[in-house]
Amino acid sequence: MAMPELAGCWFILTGSGKFFRNVQLDPADTLVLLQVDDDGKGYRIFWGLTGGGLPTSELAAHFQSHIVRMAASQGRDRIIMHCHATNLIALSYVLDLNSAAFTRELWEGSTECLVVFPDGVGIVPWMVPGTDAIGTATAEQMQSHSLVLWPFHGIFGTGPTLDEAFGLIDTAEKAAEVMVKVRSMGGKKQTITTEELIALGKRFGVTPMEAALKV
Ligand SMILES: [Zn+2]
Q1: Distance 153 CA to ligand 1 centre (A)
Q2: Do the beta carbons of residue 156 and residue 82 sit within 8 Å?
Q3: Whether pTM exceeds 0.85
Q4: Is 90 exceeded by the pLDDT of residue 2?
Q5: Which DSSP category does 117 fall into?
Q6: Cα-trace Rg, the chain
Q7: DSSP states of 128-190
Q8: 58 is catalytic
Q9: Which stretches of the chain are DSSP H helices?
């Protein structure tokens, strides 16, 4: 797939089948530095993968999401991160796979959530990973959401820095863990109300995803 929007851009990625845990121990083997060709049709590797291997199998989802977020954030978002966040995956088995409902549940999972991801969580249907098709579906959701859930698989998050992208995913994952515990204890007896969510948005100057307020 040609990506003229990324022509000449540099990326640092993890290798396919490499472990996050090993990145800090052996970055030269686990990471890869590459530059997209001038015509956007391929890339050249400049550094990394010293033990062999290929860039992440989710290259399509990363590249297509970068194209969308570069435009959506006026160039601020430079990171696309994917991981298999346990509790977000668990919730994808028990909640409706509906962006507004899923977002609302996470917002209620911790007071900071609406402030950290006011634009909510996008959801793609279950699809075979590592394909252009799941990349396209993910990028479509990235137009309006900084988090995209892959049901029964994991999460994609974006942000200006690694810390911010990680923090975003970590915040959603913590809320998901809270909701897993709440369900395990028999369900909610009380929660954050719609009026309180609206007040949170006003106090912190963010515009919450409308559909999630109406759930
Ligand atoms: Zn994955």
Answers
A1: 6
A2: yes
A3: yes
A4: no
A5: -
A6: 18
A7: -TTSHHHHHHHHHHHTT-SEEEETTTEEEEEESSHHHHHHHHHHHHHHHHHHHHHHHTTS-SS
A8: yes
A9: 20-23, 27-30, 59-72, 86-94, 99-108, 113-116, 132-142, 162-184, 194-204, 210-213
CB-based contacts of 86, cutoff 8 Å, min separation 6: 173, 177
Rounded to the nearest angstrom, the distance between the alpha carbon of 148 and the centre of ligand 1 is 12
Please give the distance, rounded to the nearest whole angstrom, from the Cα atom of residue 88 to the centre of ligand 1: 13
Whole-number Å distance between alpha carbons of 67 and 158:
12
Tell me the C-alpha distance between 130 and 59, whole Å: 7
Choose, from 58, 105, 108, 173, the residue flagged as catalytic: 58
**Residue 126 C-alpha to ligand 1 middle, in angstroms?**
12
Do 154 and 89 touch, CB atoms closer than 8 A?
A: yes
Residue 11: strand pairing partners? 34
- 121: enclosing H helix or E strand: strand 121-123
Number of C-beta neighbours around residue 90 at 10 A: 16
pLDDT tens sequence across 46-72: 999 999 999 998 888 899 999 999 999
